[in-house]
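LAB NOTEBOOK - FOLDING QUEUE
OPERATOR: T.R.
BATCH SIZE: 2
PURPOSE: Compare the predicted structure-token outputs for two unrelated chains run back to back under identical settings.
PRIORITY: normal
REVIEWER: second-year student, initials M.K.

ITEM 1
FIELD SEQUENCE / FIELD STRUCTURE:
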Amino acid sequence: MFSRYNKSTPPGRTGAPTAVPTSAPAAGIGARAAAPVSQKTAAEAAASDRDKKRKERLTELKVEIHKRLLEDLNLSALESASEQNLRQEITSLASEALDDMSVALNKEDRLALTQELYDEVMGLGPLEPLLKDESINDILVNGPKRIFIERAGKLELSDVTFRDERHLLRIIDKIVSAVGRRVDESNPYCDARLQDGSRFNCMIPPIAVDGSLVSIRKFKKDKLRIDDLVRFGAFTDEMAAYLQAAVSCRLNIIVSGGTGSGKTTTLNALSSFIDNHERVLTIEDTAELQLQQVHVGRMESRPANVEGKGAVTQRDCLRNALRMRPDRIIVGETRGEEVIDMLQAMNTGHDGSMTTIHANNPRDAISRLENMVAMAGIEMPLKAVRSQIASAVNLMVQASR
């Protein structure tokens, strides 16, 4: 199997297994219907304390067994192993370890322990259940003990925690190393993409003062269409019909909005109106767009490596895309000097191109475009900049929460 060796039971081991306390209430609680409030409160506190100690003990067991798994598992065989075989092996090794430590667990705790061990070995540890929960849109980690989640636009503190800062850093390192990046004191932050396409950003101490910061914007497997947005109340039927006509008539469109306002979702929905025979090139810093057309080329910018070399910017991608005979160019988000190339593309035969921009209202969006043109180092009078924006941009769609 995946074990490097079969561990035999240590000779001479004696003693009955030590049971981990369960969270069952103490005997006698609730026996009398009219128990004093103080007795109920004391009983509830005692039960809560037992449950806390039980969870702490399970965490200690998980740490110890995880160390043994790393020693016993044949890590080189994990990638080719089926999930079923790997789970069986982890269950077997965990049972051996529990026997060696003379610890007895009930069925529920054994299953929970095995799942957590599997997540540690093959997944992202405590984050794994949150990533699998389709109702969660964002995962925000503020140090090892405070993990917030966003559901339906509302933030809430989850009951999931990391063991300590070292545990959190190990999961961060696992994520960034999978995409060929590195995070350390000399390079304390990183953008990456998880295997499922979710967008990941992190910053570690000493820049992150109270513990490592992690942000995960989850990737939606099912792309929302314009009909879905109408059903959710984001658009009216008339607005949807107008936007369909605008895309079909090849108007250049900018979707403006604040953070988390649904700019990318709106851009995805608008892209569904593009004719299937058109050649579309997309450019993003983290690939999120999910175009369904046949002729789509996707590009993703790349930051510099730890030596400061190898960076490929969105502007590099955009300049190269102009040489690839695109009918339309879609930039996931325009945020810097690539804006001048985007405006020129819209003005020079690539009608129907689209992008998004961070701004709280359309007037601010125009101001941001002007500022980004100045950032590109192009010496142009403000009147000329405004003239270029006016001729390039046909429609502004403002998104808000």
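ITEM 2
FIELD SEQUENCE / FIELD STRUCTURE:
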Amino acid sequence: MESRASAGKKRKGAATTSRTVPIQFDHDKFVGPKQAARYIALEKRNILPEKRFLINPQGTYRSFAGLIDTKKWDRLINPLEHYDIATVREFYANTLPDDDEPFTWVSRVAGRPVPFDRDTINQILGEPLQLGADERDQYHIDLRLHKDIPAITAALLLPGKSVEPNPSGVPMRYHREDMTPMAQLILLLVLTNVQPKSHTSTVPIPVAHLVHSILANVEIDVARIIANELKTARVRLPSRGQVRIPAPIDDRYVAKYCRAKATGNSAASGSTRVSDGPSASTPRVDPYLRAACEYNFQWMAASQRAMIDMHDSMQRLQLQGSGAHALMTREQFLTNANWPVDVPVYSEGVGADDDDEDDDEATGSEAGSEEES
């Protein structure tokens, strides 16, 4: 016979048990309830539309038109002028796999499967690059190597401008206003039709590497890049039924917007740019939040150096079939890759409760590898 206490506990536990209420959704439209919920969530988001590029092949920026022609990217710079947002939202909702299922490069729209793998995207673009099943383009091969920052800087920036480092001195990003008009035009193409981003005033190293590769006419499998963007994108969609592509980017647009920022003392501004975060003109920056961010940057930079050192050492071991293998000593390793030991502790500080507007520049850099599709 059970005691009153145990019987009471059982009754209490049974009373708190709840049943899962199934979500009602259109089975012909969505793969499952998770995708239906994703569709509703996407209604609250905005979109980053593609843009059309109408550059005069005989004009000032004819070298850009020549690059597009050489790479056979005509369809890439001429997207559709109208599209139905409900269809786009349905596509992105159904790309979301269930928790117990592997990811597939197939979505569903109006009950029909819609693949978006590399080969399908390449066909949509008119097959600008044909590769074998296991073949990789030069750009994706170069992603495995260290970025040639001096070469990127020399090719993309105006004279006297330089890359902005983080507090540890590691190159972090470029500023669009420091770039040549040609580099800014290619950047617009990348950030609107290849790897869409809402923030365009600063350029992370991986994006700059892609811009430099296009400028240098490196072989680029743009379909692979777009396919991976479709997989990983945090889609932002509007609530309007029809969306119109904005005005095209032409020679007048480039002449007006793709140029160095006019300042009273450009030489001084270029030489006084520092790497310790926002400038003094940025309003209401909490000093404690800034210190914590700088600490994180230092930690991540040290981690990156450590991984690079380990990779280089392992590569040397692989290349040397026999003989002595020289790994760094513990002291050498800590000298190069040591990060801050103590985590700083701060009080809330003045202005910590202020409601600042979101700053896109705080989003950081983007991942630079597209090796999945």
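REVIEWER COMMENT (ITEM 2): The radius of gyration is 26 Å.
FOLLOW-UP: none requested
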